[in-house]
Write a structure and sequence with these properties.
Strand order of the largest sheet: 1-2-3-5-6-9-7
CATH class: Alpha Beta
Helix content: 25-40%
Structural class: alpha+beta
Number of domains: 1
Number of helices: 5
Number of strands: 10
Largest sheet: 7 strands, mixed
Mean pLDDT: 96
CATH architecture: 3-Layer(aba) Sandwich
Bound molecules: coenzyme A
Low-confidence stretches: none
Length: 169
């Protein structure tokens, strides 16, 4: 199993290469670099195999229409090099990332993705909490509360960092 550790700016080229290979395009690689350079990558973890970065996950701040307390993060993007997929690395990386968000005093994590995949980590549809994203993603937009108080007064639209719109995601 790969080793998981916090990313550093020195990892950026390797991280971009992971996203490029996993997604087959530049969008997520450019987004990841932009978020790091803007200082909006508070939780950024890599998985390494024998000194090579093979996977990356990023959590960046989101804003919430009502009740925003600056403690909500968005999980995106996450990628594993094609040759390393389906070996549990993505799962381990996301689990470790969720733990790091908790330690960093985050209140909730949002994600846009497959409900089948993300329900394994405890995510459930955000619409059940009167929360939605800007893309009308329906059940694919999910949330994981991290505190005993749950989602507090969070309501309405959840927006990712401006770098997402700029990247065209
Ligand atoms: C999604 C991704 C991060 C998962 O990482 P991973 O290390 O392959 O996943 P794990 O080994 O922890 O979990 C495997 C499970 O993930 C799901 N999964 C993984 N890749 C999948 C894919 N391309 N399509 C659908 N489900 C997928 C499957 O349910 C799989 O379970 P199975 O092996 O029993 O079928 C990785 O496949 C990837 O980088 N994909 C391309 C980029 C991407 O789509 N990122 C997510 C959107 S931001």
């Amino acid at each position: 199993m790969a080793d998981i550790r916090p990313a550093t700016l020195d990892d950026l080229d390797a991280i971009a290469a992971v996203h490029r290979a996993a997604f087959g395009r530049e969008t997520e690689a450019n987004l990841t670099i932009a978020l790091h350079k803007a200082g909006r990558a508070p939780i950024s973890l890599v998985a390494e195999d024998d000194g090579t970065v093979v996977a990356h996950v990023l959590f960046s701040p989101v804003t919430i229409e009502q009740g925003d307390d600056g403690k909500a993060l968005g999980l995106a993007p996450v990628a594993v090099l094609p040759d390393y997929q389906r070996q549990g690395i993505g799962h381990a990386l996301i689990e470790e990332g969720i733990g790091a968000c908790f330690v960093a005093d985050a209140r909730a994590i949002f994600v846009l993705g497959s409900p089948v995949y993300y329900s394994r980590f405890g995510f459930s549809k955000a619409s059940a909490h009167a929360l939605h994203d800007a893309y009308e993603s329906g059940n694919a937009f999910q949330v994981l509360p991290l505190t005993v108080d749950g989602l507090g007064d969070y309501r309405g639209r959840v927006d990712y960092a401006p770098e997402f719109a700029a990247a065209g995601t």
